[in-house]
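Hi R.,

Here's the chain you asked about this morning:
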Amino acid sequence: MEHFINFTNQSQGRDRIFRATQYACALLKYLIRNKAARAELARKLDNLEKNMSAGRKLFRLGNTVSSVHAARRTLQLSDPVLRACLAAAHLSRALYFICDNLLWARSLGFLQHLDKERWGLLASRFYLVSLLLNLARDLYQISRIMGRRARDKQVQEKISRHLGSNGDVACMVVPKLDAFLLLLCESLRSHPPLLLDTVKNVCDLFIPMDSLRIYKTNPGVVGFCGLASSVLGILSVLQPSLKVKP
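And the predicted structure, written out as tokens:
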């Protein structure tokens, strides 16, 4: 109970709960879209989804400054790849929050001259760039871990035993691929925060890609991916040890 209270007292924690509720509503609304008997429930879910989205915009009002500050902190990292990826990701996220704040102001009746569609697409572009940079960071860290694990004698012996005990056609044809996948699984299993962050970023990618029509799916897929990434985000807030660093 104490963990839950501490979680809900954080603005980030409240945002994750609102986000999970928002995308859960979107998913449920999609699943009952063709059921006439559930029309009233669909309407209530739609209203709840909109309210959750509006509430999240309030929580994000100060995030632009936080993102810029985070970008400044990453400049102190010694690794040039991590420094570049994370600094650019935080700056892209700051620009996304600026667009989001302007759209929120327009929804309240201010800045009526603002082109909602244009700024919405611009926000999605910045969000997508931020996710791609974070995913690049994840892949870079995975490659580094795999390189270290590949030099580990115990891992080398495990791969050799695995390849020797599987004499089927697939393993004989592509032994390097089989060894690569085994090494990848071993690396991710030994670093749960990195696995969690990678899956979360991949799930989030579908949201801006759908908005920008880069990869058009449907509200059900967007709702499921948003809900999955929100749950993973909640886990990382509840358990700081599951938060990827840096």
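Residues 116-150 form the longest helix (35 residues).

Let me know if you need anything else.
M.
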